[in-house]
Amino acid sequence: MGKKQHKFDAKRELDYLDDKVYYLGLAFNAISEWCGEIEGKVNRINKAQKGLKKSMHKHENGGNQLLMCVLPKPCDGDLYADWSFMDFMSKPWEEMTEMMEAANKWQATHKEEDRLRFLREATDVIVSVTSAMNKAGANLAERQKIMVEVNKSNAVRDGGRRFQRRA
């Protein structure tokens, strides 16, 4: 009682291989498409990295600092839906008062926790002004354009002494 011998059927084996080659071809096409998509994404990432590198500058200590890596997000949610432009304009005054209180406390105590509170309050001022600019119709692109214009203007005013010179 040995093994049962199967008769070799060439047509059946050829059909089987044809099916496998067909599915292999489909898989190859899918993989090729994926590779193309991945290559496109890699190219976009590389292009973005080149742009980011252009946005970096050297500090005196040799380190890099990324400019404009985090931008203030305007408060424009449902909570503020019924706020007028003048409501938004009054918010920076409130935040400035809180920032000044935090700055005064930090100067009196010289504690790190008070310095951090001052920085957070100063950031609230930035966000509140950004929110008012947003309410005035200035989107991110326009706010960035104006920031570049103001920075360029300030760089040359007062004999260029407004900004530290970087190597």
Gross morphology is: elongated
Give helix % range: 55-70%
Spell out the helices and strands N to C: HEEHHH
Tally of structural domains? 2
Instruction: Please report the distance between the alpha carbons of the first and last residues.
Output: 90 Å
In spatial order, strands of the major sheet run: 1-2
Question: How many helices does DSSP assign?
Answer: 4
Query: What ranges have pLDDT less than 50 throughout 5 or more consecutive residues?
Result: 57-62
Oligomeric description of these chains: single chain
Question: What's the overall average pLDDT, rounded?
Answer: 84
Strand element count: 2
**Quick one: biggest sheet?**
2 strands, antiparallel
Radius of gyration: 31 Å
**Helical/strand content category:** mainly alpha
Strand content: under 5%
Key features of this structure:
single chain, 167 residues, mainly alpha, 2 domains, two-stranded antiparallel ribbon, 4 helices, 2 strands
